[in-house]
Write a structure and sequence with these properties.
Number of strands: 0
Helix content: 55-70%
Distance between the termini: 28 Å
Radius of gyration: 22 Å
Largest sheet: none
Strand content: under 5%
Mean pLDDT: 79
Shape: globular
Structural class: mainly alpha
Oligomer: single chain
Number of helices: 15
């Protein structure tokens, strides 16, 4: 009796010899090898499957779809940045935005008043850039988690990573834990790691199936959200409470050039690392045993990618609060456009995430003007219907 290779978090079910499922993995991430006992003999087949996946990326049809997306998406990102800055009560045009940027870069001059220049350079431009960076980072985290865990519902928000990072950040701000020794991002990073470790432990104790993993993530989210609320309501004053609660719902209103630099470096570094290891993520789509047979150090690579995901999530949460559903929805849209090969999927998802959050944040700060809607609320209003569609697709 043999058993089919499964996610290590899922219990093995014994049955007759299952049918083979060769070829490219679907977004559900099914295994390429038939069973664990034949894996060593089928290593060549698994290798061929992964090579087929890699070969599909530069295929003419894939290059047609993926190439168009990767060419047009950066142009759309630039247009979105320029267009979003012009939206608001101040009467600005794209030419005005270009003039301010050129003036600050020493390449021209601007005819705007000092107040209008400050609105562009100090308020709207860093906020718009930070929105794009956060959207790209959260989308990349969603791709990594869905590939490693082979779960289409995995993302930093659903699995409790964002809530843990929020608790860590609030502990620094309100309680002053380690103040002066560790920064806000470090506290958020520690909280993200603790939360995700708890999720994996709970899922393993509950049986290790993918649905148990999602349920464990929901439990961790509620736990750390409750801890955050407890800290705020017992240790913060009224002004701190209002500020922290608004920030926890997701807010980019305090964006600065320092935030843009820090988040930009971390997210860009994470993207480059993941693109360099795209072959590893492709191999993980066939299952841990198949990846190991192809020479992937499963334990080490998985740990590195999970820590990288926690780091990106922590940095994003420390600057923008908890923004949900970006990492859940955008990877599925990108797969529909460019396919499952991670060499194209990762940059495409990052670009789509940037475009999405730029315009969601723009709507959040203008739709109920002069008040501002937390961007996390806006992403939830868009993401919940998309989440329902993913659930129905997973059921089928």
């Amino acid at each position: 009796m043999t058993s089919r290779t499964r996610n290590p978090l899922q219990p093995k079910r014994h049955s007759g010899r299952p049918k083979r499922h060769p070829g490219r993995p679907t977004w559900r991430g099914r295994d390429a090898s038939s069973d664990a006992s034949d894996l060593s003999g089928d290593a060549g087949d698994a290798s061929a499957d992964v090579r087929d996946l890699s070969a599909d990326v530069p295929d003419a049809s894939a290059i047609g779809a993926g190439g168009v997306v990767l060419i047009l998406a950066p142009l759309v990102v630039l247009a979105s940045v320029a267009g979003a800055i012009t939206v608001g009560p101040s009467d600005l045009s794209v030419a005005d935005v270009y003039g301010v940027v050129a003036d600050r870069a020493g390449l021209g001059s601007s005819d705007l008043t000092l107040l209008q220049q400050s609105i562009v350079w100090d308020l709207r431009l860093p906020r718009t850039l930070l929105a794009g960076i956060c959207g790209a980072g959260l989308a990349i985290c969603g791709v990594i988690l869905q590939s490693l865990l082979r779960n289409p519902l995995a993302d930093p928000f659903v699995l409790g990573i964002s809530s843990g990072a929020s608790t860590g950040a609030v502990s620094i701000v309100v309680l002053g834990v380690g103040a002066g020794a560790i920064g806000l991002s470090t506290g958020a990073f520690a909280g993200a790691l603790v939360s995700f470790a708890l999720v994996l432990l709970l899922a393993s104790l509950a049986g290790g199936t993918t649905d148990r993993l999602v349920l464990a993530g929901i439990a961790a989210t509620q736990l750390f959200s409750a801890l955050t609320s407890f800290i705020v309501f017992t240790a913060a004053d009224a002004e701190q409470t209002r500020g922290v609660l608004f920030w926890l719902l997701g807010s980019l209103s305090s964006a600065s050039w320092t935030d843009v630099l820090v988040c930009g470096v971390i997210v860009l570094g994470g993207l480059l690392c993941c693109v360099a290891g795209a072959g590893w993520l492709d191999a993980f789509a066939f299952g841990n045993d198949a990846a190991a047979s192809l020479g992937v150090d499963v334990g080490r690579i998985r740990a590195v990618l999970l820590v990288l995901t926690a780091l990106m999530t922590a940095v994003i949460v420390s600057t923008s609060g908890a923004i949900g559903f970006v990492g859940l929805v955008l990877p599925h849209l990108a797969r529909a456009l460019v396919g499952p090969g991670h060499r194209l999927l990762l940059p495409a998802t990052a670009l789509l995430g940037a475009i999405f959050l730029i315009w969601v944040d723009t709507a959040a700060r203008t739709v109920i003007d002069p008040e501002e809607l937390p961007v996390g609320v806006a992403t939830a209003l868009v993401g919940v219907p998309a989440f329902a569609l993913v659930l129905m697709r997973a059921r089928r």
